[in-house]
């Protein structure tokens, strides 16, 4: 059910509001689960016009007068049905170029959730191994039931990926956090990491990973410096109030491949 403190007027007027939202966006939800959602479709979903138009006139009036409700409603709908971040085709293609540039083909994804990326990344030529601590019954493709550190240690990745590691609260110096331990393991073995989430102080993962000896930089900036024009890397779209980006942790000893680049 929708939290009535957030959408009280709409929830009272229309108790089946969540199911109406999902039906209005059914095509886009299906495409997102297949890795086929375009950036223009993602931005249209965020704007919420298609859902607003599917509602009774009285509800439309409420939503038109309160854009914050529309923003909350769309994020609620998408995260409930797909994932916390939108991963459009243009982003998938950009990350494909980044992994190719790093010279890696075997990527272990941790905290994979519905496992949205195995099929599109396999189709792009990667050996993509998706894992999660708890496998969901509605996952769109098979994945291994493993915690992040276990998966990283056991599955011989050439690179590690995750998207929206759930927030871990605690002191920034606490090196017992699993994301910190996973990053440290990779850093010590020259395994690059690409992840999607907010920056330091944001609501993803733990603060501790930002305090390690490694450098964490926006992947778009790295690619524009080392590989391609800045405008060529398409990052994830951002929900209102959130600062999602794609980040890179690259050990200094990691060799690079002069492939997959635009302007080198």
Secondary-structure blueprint of this entry?
Blueprint: H1 4-13, H2 17-24, H3 26-33, H4 39-47, H5 49-53, H6 57-64, H7 67-81, H8 89-102, E1 106-109, H9 118-123, E2 127-132, E3 144-145, H10 148-154, E4 159-163, H11 178-188, E5 193-197, E6 216-218, H12 219-226, E7 245-249
Parallel strand pairs: 1-2, 1-4, 2-3, 4-5
Antiparallel strand pairs: 5-7, 6-7
In short:
This protein has 264 residues and is of the alpha/beta class. It has 12 helices and 7 strands.
Low-confidence stretches: 1-6, 255-259
**Overall geometry:** elongated
Largest sheet: 7 strands, mixed
Cα separation of the termini:
51 Å
Beta-strand residue percentage:
5-15%
Order of helices and strands: HHHHHHHHEHEEHEHEEHE
Q: Can you describe this structure?
A:
The protein is α/β, with parallel strands linked by helices. It is 41% helix and 11% strand. The chain contains twelve helices and seven strands. The chain has helices at 4-13, 17-24, 26-33, 39-47, 49-53, 57-64, 67-81, 89-102, 118-123, 148-154, 178-188, 219-226, and strands spanning 106-109, 127-132, 144-145, 159-163, 193-197, 216-218, 245-249. The longest helix has 15 residues, at 67-81.
């Amino acid at each position: 059910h929708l939290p009535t403190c957030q959408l009280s007027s709409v929830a009272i007027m229309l108790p089946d509001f969540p199911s109406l939202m999902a039906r209005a966006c059914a095509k886009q939800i299906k495409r997102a689960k297949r890795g086929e959602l375009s950036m223009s479709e993602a931005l249209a979903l965020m704007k919420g016009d298609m859902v607003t138009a599917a509602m009774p006139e009285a509800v439309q009036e409420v939503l038109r007068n309160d854009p914050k409700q529309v923003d909350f409603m769309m994020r609620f709908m998408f995260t409930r049905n797909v994932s916390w971040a939108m991963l459009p085709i243009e982003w998938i293609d950009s990350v494909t170029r980044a992994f190719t540039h790093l010279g890696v083909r075997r990527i272990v994804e941790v905290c994979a959730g519905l496992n949205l990326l195995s099929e599109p990344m396999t189709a792009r030529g990667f050996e993509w191994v998706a894992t999660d601590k708890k496998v969901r019954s509605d996952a769109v493709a098979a994945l291994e039931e493993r915690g992040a550190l276990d998966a990283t240690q056991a599955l011989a990745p050439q690179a590690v990926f995750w998207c929206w590691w759930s927030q871990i609260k605690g002191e920034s110096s606490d090196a017992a956090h699993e994301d910190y331990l996973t990053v440290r393991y990779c850093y010590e073995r020259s395994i690059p990491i690409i992840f999607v989430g907010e920056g330091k102080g944001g609501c993803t993962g733990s603060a501790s990973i930002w305090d390690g000896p490694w450098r964490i930089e926006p992947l778009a900036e790295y690619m524009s410096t080392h590989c391609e024009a800045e405008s060529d890397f398409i990052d994830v779209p951002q929900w209102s109030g959130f600062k999602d980006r794609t980040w890179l942790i690259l050990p200094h000893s990691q060799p690079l491949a002069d492939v997959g680049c635009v302007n080198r």
